[in-house]
Amino acid sequence: MEVVTVTDQLRDGYDVVVVGGGAAGLNGALMLARSRRSVVVIDAGEPRNAPAAGVHGLLGREGTSPAELLERGRAEVRHYGGHVVTGQVTDAVRDDDGFTVTLSDGARVRGRRILVTTGLVDELPDVPALRDRWGHEVLHCPYCHGWEVRDQTIGVLASGPMSVHQALLFRQLSDDVVFLSHTAPPPTGEDAENLAARGIRVLDGEVTSLEITDGRLTGARLNDGTTIALEALVVAPRATVRAAFFDGLGLRAAEHPAGVGEHVPSDATGCTDVPGVWVAGNVTDPSAQVGTAAAAGAVAAAQINADLIAEETRQAVAVRR
């Protein structure tokens, strides 16, 4: 990643400040820059999908590494006059005609509108060695990584309300799926019936550690000493919003209705209940893949541009009167 400090490049003010430089933020900035809006993307350099080897389900960029995709996006934004800088936003407050955004190094930048695309942090189950294999053999999304583990022995760790659903999804990809109850009670009722009907084994007992051989997952050890051979492990992490600067804006995270963690509520265009603030990507839609997040950034950018045009038109009419 090209490191451009804030003082190197920031101007006094922008039409739009984009906080977060993933797919949603960069695609939003691209749309705004192509609409001749002054825009800056402030990115902390902590993408959610950094551990993954490639981006999947993205037409024309299938298998591209996350780092390469983001570098291409930064170059495209800069090509149209947008700025992309490295920095951590610590505060953002409304002022007379927009917002003042403060970074961790004390630098400040003003924007008339803000697009928040800071994404999420995945809180993983506390199982030794699990985090080390996250994004490799330990995964959560069948559409992001399922093809890569097809026909393997796949364990599904019960870690949230979506775990049974995950097991059924991964059963599409392998005949050998085992549901690990871990610290939750074994599935009952309809859940148990559905798992049994699809031939998904259910094993009771807490997973105390993962077995790693030559840098790859080979199994899971239960609290009774039993070791289950596995080639992949599916978990459902709890998502938490990157919200260090939300208080100054009056922006609030809420529990997502699906029970997967936090999100920032918005309408279909990314407009929040805080005037002048839009959101896009995982920060509002935890299940959004890269393509979905990029599309949401474009939608939010178009709405922001339209909002600015409406404001500028009102001002122009007032001057003529």
Automatic annotation (TrEMBL):
It catalyses: [thioredoxin]-dithiol + NADP(+) = [thioredoxin]-disulfide + NADPH + H(+). Residues 14-295 form the FAD/NAD(P)-binding domain. Keywords: Flavoprotein, Oxidoreductase. PANTHER family: THIOREDOXIN REDUCTASE 1-RELATED-RELATED. This is NAD(P)/FAD-dependent oxidoreductase. The keyword Flavoprotein applies. Pfam families: Pyr_redox_2. SUPFAM superfamilies: FAD/NAD(P)-binding domain. Coiled coil: none annotated. The keyword 4Fe-4S does not apply.
